Amino acid sequence: MIKNEILDEAIRDYENVLHSIPLFSNVGDLIEDSERSVKNWYEVYTLISKQNKWLNFKNVITNVIADVGFEFDLDEAFHEIEKISGNFVDSFFKGFEEPEIFHSAAASGKLDYHVKWDLNFLGVERVLSTETNNYPKFFTDMIFPWYQKGHFPCGWNGKMIKQSWEGKALKDLPNGKVRVY
Fold first, then answer.
1. How does DSSP assign 58-84, residue by residue?
2. Which residues contact 85 (CB under 8 A, 6 or more apart)?
3. How far apart are CA 99 and CA 154, in angstroms?
4. SS3 176
5. How far apart are CA 86 and CA 158, in angstroms?
């Protein structure tokens, strides 16, 4: 268990935030921004399974977060967050009828894989913010608001982010928008 009281509090806060998310409650509902809107589960599947732009985007951001200098043991914190996120997502997916198109997808193309990834790194960002704000809050500021609205962020409409990207703020990202169902 993480010994730092601030980290313990941040992780408890994260767990409370998770339980406020209305997962997938508004997928399929109209999003007024046509550049952002995803039309159906087939398009979601294409974005997360067959196009590497979204996976690449999240990988780069995840690597930037992992390179942030901090005082605590990120591995220990991540393990706690991963357990909390995993339980939350697994519980939701027990009662969710996954669209048939995802049944034969590889693990990295499954909906629960992507939701866990997003929520894990939302938790990591929340914990990191107890020590530093010297990193882009991609999951907190660009992904989480869509989950809070009951949608599923699932793609990127814009320029590809380079593997060597070293931005420190969202304004440093290539022009584009998160795609949402």
1. HHHHHHHHHT---SS-HHHHHHHHHHH
2. 18, 116, 119, 120, 123
3. 15
4. strand
5. 30
pLDDT single digits (tens) 7-59: 788 888 999 999 999 999 999 998 888 888 999 999 999 988 766 778 778 88
Higher pLDDT, 88 or 131: 88
Q: Tens digit of pLDDT for each residue in 71-113? A: 666 677 788 899 999 999 999 999 999 999 999 988 888 999 9
Q: Say which residue the tokens 């027990």 belong to.
A: 94
Alpha helices in the chain (DSSP H): 5-18, 41-45, 52-66, 74-94, 111-128, 138, 144-148
Entry field: residues in the chain: 181
